[in-house]
């Protein structure tokens, strides 16, 4: 499974099925589905997502296809996987965009609130690209936090990636991004990964700054923006991640999500509703603090972990 502790959803599902006629209990199928609806909602799946899952279950019930508890579990899993696939590209694994040779560096801008795991994700991602034989340049655009710059430099050394840091007194994040893009183009670097600030509670206009960063990338490539704008969300914040993702997505534009700390939560149901409600694919997941703990998001594996 995904989490060390058993998923709350899997546990509650077992309880509901045990009490149903299919599990030897007394509840009929309708009562079981009503209980299941409650379980899904308390598992942070969101009302709209639960509605569409329940519609699938009721359709199967009507067609007399729910004759065992396995039928219910299978229908539930299929429904959740379908939602994730609808948003996640052909095979459900949403690959990161790559620029063709000769078109300049692939640019990945990484955004998200402080503490979500942005810098760690960048370190892991840089390592992954390096292992693929690509050259990587990191841009330290969190110009207001010296610690963030230092942390990125540490990851850069570990991953064998160059790091562009703010010049003394340089406060413009877009300026650092400009310098990194110029160096990336000049050195014919394969991938530029841009770290950004995630301070949400200051009066400095963060969203405006992020838009400027996106604009600077465009200056190096006929106006088209970064290849990826990845929003990093921490799985432990649960359904709050949906609200947060909507804000970032509306303000800056997001191409996909990275869900971190899936190793530490037993309540990952919200991931399905982020994908469903926002129409954004999950591209990567973080399952630990070390460099190897970055995975492609696999909807089938994810749902197995969720439903058990
Ligand atoms: P940032 O402020 O968004 O750049 O966040 P950091 O990259 O500094 O990460 C914040 C904390 O979360 C650090 O202690 C990381 O080691 C930890 N972290 C990041 N990703 C994961 C993950 O996938 N799993 C776990 N368990 N911890 C993570």
Q: Could you please describe the fold and organization of this structure?
A:
- This protein has 308 residues and is α/β, with parallel strands linked by helices.
- It has eleven helices and eight strands.
- The chain has helices at 8-19, 29-42, 47-62, 69-88, 118-131, 146-159, 173-186, 206-219, 240-252, 270-278, 299-307; strands at 106-111, 136-140, 162-164, 191-195, 228-234, 256-260, 282-286, 294-296.
- An eight-stranded mixed sheet has the order 3-2-4-1-5-6-7-8, with helices on both faces.
- Helix 6 (146-159) links the parallel strand 2 and strand 3.
- Helix 1 (8-19) runs antiparallel to helix 2, helix 7 (173-186) packs parallel to helix 8 (206-219) and helix 9 runs parallel beside helix 10 (270-278).
- It is elongated and about 70 Å long.
- The relative contact order is 0.17.
- The model has no long low-confidence stretch (mean pLDDT 91).
- Bound molecules: guanosine-5'-diphosphate (GDP).
């Amino acid at each position: 499974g995904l989490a060390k502790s058993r998923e709350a959803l899997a546990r509650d599902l077992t309880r509901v099925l045990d009490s149903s006629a299919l599990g030897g209990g007394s509840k009929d199928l309708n009562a079981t589905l009503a209980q299941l609806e409650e379980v899904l909602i308390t598992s942070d799946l969101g009302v709209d997502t639960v509605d569409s899952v329940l519609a699938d279950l009721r359709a199967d019930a009507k067609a007399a296809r729910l004759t065992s508890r396995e039928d219910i579990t299978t229908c539930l899993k299929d429904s959740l996987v379908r939602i994730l696939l609808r948003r996640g590209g052909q095979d459900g694994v949403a690959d990161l965009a790559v620029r063709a040779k000769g078109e300049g560096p692939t640019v990945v801008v990484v955004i998200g609130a402080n503490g979500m795991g942005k810098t760690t994700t960048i370190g892991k991602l840089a390592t992954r690209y390096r292992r693929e034989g690509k050259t990587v340049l990191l841009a330290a655009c969190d110009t207001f936090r010296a610690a963030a710059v230092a942390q990125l430099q540490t990851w850069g050394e570990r991953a064998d990636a160059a790091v562009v840091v703010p010049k003394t007194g340089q406060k413009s994040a877009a300026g650092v991004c400009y310098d990194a893009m110029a160096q990336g183009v000049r050195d014919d670097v394969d991938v530029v990964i841009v770290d950004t600030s995630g301070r949400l509670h200051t009066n400095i206009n963060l969203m405006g700054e992020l838009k400027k960063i996106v604009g600077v990338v465009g200056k190096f490539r006929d106006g088209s923006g970064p290849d990826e704008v990845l929003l990093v969300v921490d799985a432990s914040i649960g359904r709050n991640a949906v609200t947060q993702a909507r804000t970032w997505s509306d303000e800056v534009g997001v191409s996909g999500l990275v869900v971190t700390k899936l190793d530490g939560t037993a309540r990952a149901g919200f991931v399905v509703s982020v994908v469903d409600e926002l129409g954004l694919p999950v591209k990567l997941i973080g399952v630990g603090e070390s460099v190897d703990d970055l995975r492609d998001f696999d909807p089938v594996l994810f749902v197995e972990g969720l439903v058990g």
